[in-house]
C-alpha cells in the first residue's frame, strides 16, 4: 500500500468560548472544590456553513445536562478531567487516560449503544488544570479515534455533483434537513433510488451491509456530517464510523465501501445547491485486530507539539484587572472622544503625596484615582474620630471604634478597597511646625519626621498641602521648593476656599517682568508669599470652635475637586510647573498664552466665596522676602539642613529676621499706608 | 422620540429572526424573554486572521510536551489553514431599558477563549471602520445578562438615529444595525431590507 492511497482525515481543532472558562472556574470553586472530578461535557460541531478548520466548540452550556440544541449544531460527547495541581497535570499518564476513554467508547460501540445513538461516536476528552488565582488554564483536547482499521482509497474523494444529479443532491439535502432527532444527524446511511436520496438510520448498518457481495450495497453510502469545509480529506468523524462498520460487518473488510461526506453551504431557504460541496469516495478497509485497538487523537498545541495549550484569561476574568482596565478605558474614552491630544500617561504616572488625610485629603485622593493616578501616599498625625466619617469620604463608623484608627493608614486601606490597583500607603507623623518649639525629648522624633518628609517629597512628583493649619504647610512648602516639586495647596475658610499651585523654581536667574500679562510658573508665589508674618502657633490662642474645622461641608469638596483639576491642567501644559498664569483675563480674543493647556487656562490660584458664589483667579509673583520659598530661605536650608529647621521651629521671629520681614514691618509701620484685610486670617482655620 | 418599548423590541427582533432563519444568518434568542431586557439575539462569525505567533525553532523544547502521546498515526491530513489564526466575532443585540433603544454588545476572541483587546483590533486594521468608532461610542461594559465583559456601542446616539428614520422604518433594529454594524464587521444581508420597506 503506498502512502498516497491511505485515507487521511482532517482532525478537529478545539474552540473554547470565553464563557467555558468562566463556567469551569465557577464549578471548580463552588461544586468540585478539591475533588478531581470527571465531568461529562457537551461539545458541538457543524457541517453547515463552516469556515476554516473543522472545529469542535465548548462553551458554558457544555456543562448542561441536556445538549443545547442550536440550529445545525451537532452534539459531541466529552469527558473533562480537571486536575488540582500543575504537578499532577504534568505527571498524569496521558496514554492511560486516553486508553480509558477509548475503552469506554469501545464499550458503547460493542454493546450497540452507538447504533441507537450514533452521536456517541463523536467523542472527545478534555484534560484541564486551572490556576484560579491567576486565571490561567492548561488544557488538552483529545478527539478520540481508533488507530485502526487502516483504510485504503479506491476512488478518491470527488464533488458530489460530478456523480449525483442535481435532483439527487437536492433530495439528499432536504431528507437530511428533515431528520428531527439531532442525535441521528451526524452518522447515517444514504441510498440513491432514481432521483431520490433516501436516508436510513445508522442502526440499519447491519441489515444493509450484511450481504456478502459488495454489489448488493453498491447503491448505499455510509454517510456522515462533515465538519470539514474544504479540501479532499474527509473529517475526523468518519474514522469512528468506519470502525463501527468493521466491528458489525467484519466481512466487508477488503471490499468496496461508498462514503458520503455531507457538507452544506446554506444561504437561504429553498436553496437547491446547498449540498454541492459534499464529497463522495470509495474506500476499502484493511484487516485489523480489535483486541489490539489503540486510541489516538490528542490535539497538537499552537507550537505543533503534543502537549497542552495554555491560555491566560486574567484580563477578562480577574476582577482586579477588570477594574483596572475599566478605569483606564473610561479615561481613554475622554481622550478618544473629546481630547485626542490628552496625555493620560503623565497624569497616571504622577506620584502624589498628600499632607493631611482629612476632608480635603479624602476628596483629593478619590479624585486622583478618578484620573487614574496610581501612586498616592498619605501623611497625617491623627486618628479617625466620630465626627469624621460624615465629612471625610474614606472613613466609616468602624474606623472610629477603639480609639480610632490612624487616619493615614485607614485612608490608604480604604483606597485599596475602592480600587485594588492603587499603590498607596499611610505615614503617621507630626509635621514639624514653626513656632512649635522642639525640646530635647522631642528632638529625635522631630529629626526623624523631617528626614521622613524629605524622603517622601523626594520620592513623589506632586505634594498636596491639605492640612488644617497654616504653619503645618511651611515645611512641606520649603521641601517642595527645595526639591523643585510641584506643590498644590488647598485651604478652607467657613465659606471660602483658596486653591493654588506654588511656583516651581528653576535655576534661571532672569528677573521677573512685572509688566507682562502673565507670570511663568518659575516666578509664581507660594501660599506664604502674600503673608508678611511668619507662621506662629495658631492653635495656642484659639477657642475650640476655631481649632476644629468650621466650614460649610461642601467647601472642602469644591476645593478638593479644584485642586486636583488644577494639577491635571498643570500636567497637561507643555511647560508643566512652569506653565504661565494669566494676570488679567483677556478682554479681547484669546491668544495662545491665555488659552493655556488643552483643558483651558492654568491659573495660579482660585479663590472662591460661597456667600456670593463668586470665584476669582488671581496670580501673584514670588515674594523676595517670603518665609517659605524665597532665595534666602532655600539657601539657608541648603547649607544648614536640619539645624536651620530646628531654629525655625524654636522661634517664630527667626524667619522674619532672616528674610528681612522684620525690617519690612518697621518700614511699613513708618509709612503707615498699608492696610491688611483680616479676611486672609480665615484661611488659617482650615482643613 | 425614536424609542421603543421592550415588547416592541421583542417583536422587531422576532421578525428579524424570521429573516435570519430564512437566509441561515445564524441569529438566535438567548436568555429569558419574560424578563424586561432579560433576553437578546445573538450571532457568531468566525474569521480567519493571519497567524501572529511565529513557529518555534526546531530545537526549542516544550516543557509540557508529551512524546508518549505521539502514537504512530499517519492518518492525519495536513492542515489546510495552518498559517491562519481563527477569531470569533460574537454579536449581541440587547434592549437598553434606560435608553429604550436596541444596544449592541460584541466580543472578539481567539480559539482558546481569550478576548482580543480593543487596541489590537484597531491596530489590526482588519475592520477599518472601527477606527472611526473609537472617537464615538465604543467602550467596555459588563454584559447586563451574562455578567461578563463585552465591548458595546453606547446607545446615546441610537434614539437620535432612529428618530431620523421615524415613519420611514418599520423595523428600527434593521435600520440601526445596518448603519452601526459595518463599523464592527457586521454587514446585514440585503434580505433584511424588506423589513424596513416604506409602508406609506
From TrEMBL, chain A:
- Annotated protein name in UniProt: Ubiquitin-like modifier-activating enzyme ATG7
Q: THIF-type NAD/FAD binding fold domain: from which residue to which, for each copy?
A: 333-576
**Active site residues according to the UniProt entry:** 548 (glycyl thioester intermediate)
Recorded hits in PANTHER family, A to Z, give: UBIQUITIN-ACTIVATING ENZYME E1, UBIQUITIN-LIKE MODIFIER-ACTIVATING ENZYME ATG7
* The protein's role, per its UniProt record: E1-like activating enzyme involved in the 2 ubiquitin-like systems required for autophagy.
Q: Which SUPFAM superfamilies does UniProt cross-reference here?
A: Activating enzymes of the ubiquitin-like proteins
For this chain, the family text in UniProt reads: Belongs to the ATG7 family.
Concerning InterPro entries, the annotation shows: Atg7, Atg7_N, Atg7_N_1, Atg7_N_2, ThiF/MoeB/HesA, ThiF_NAD_FAD-bd, Ubiquitin-activating_enz
Give the GO molecular function terms. Atg12 activating enzyme activity; Atg8 activating enzyme activity
Q: Print the keywords alphabetically.
A: Autophagy, Cytoplasm, Protein transport, Transport, Ubl conjugation pathway
Its subcellular locations are:
Cytoplasm; Preautophagosomal structure
- Residue ranges of the Ubiquitin-like modifier-activating enzyme Atg7 N-terminal domain? 7-315
- GO cellular component annotations of the record: phagophore assembly site
Q: How does it assemble?
A: Homodimer.
Its GO biological process annotations read: autophagosome assembly; autophagy of mitochondrion; cellular response to nitrogen starvation; piecemeal microautophagy of the nucleus; protein modification by small protein conjugation; protein transport
What gene makes this protein? LOC117646039
From TrEMBL, chain B:
Q: Which UniProt keywords apply?
A: Autophagy, Transferase, Ubl conjugation pathway
What gene does this protein come from? LOC117639584
Q: Which InterPro entries is this protein grouped with?
A: Atg3/Atg10 (IPR007135)
Q: Which GO terms describe its molecular function?
A: Atg12 conjugating enzyme activity
What is the protein name stated in its UniProt record? Answer: Ubiquitin-like-conjugating enzyme ATG10
The organism's superkingdom is given as Eukaryota
Upper lineage ranks?
Answer: Eukaryota, Metazoa, Ecdysozoa, Arthropoda, Hexapoda
Q: Which GO terms describe its cellular component?
A: cytosol
**Does this entry carry the keyword Transferase?**
yes
Indicate whether Transferase appears among the record's keywords: yes
Question: What organism is this sequence from?
Answer: Thrips palmi
Query: What protein family does this chain belong to?
Result: Belongs to the ATG10 family.
Q: Which GO terms describe its biological process?
A: autophagosome assembly; autophagy of mitochondrion; protein modification by small protein conjugation
Matches recorded under Pfam families: Autophagy_act_C (PF03987)
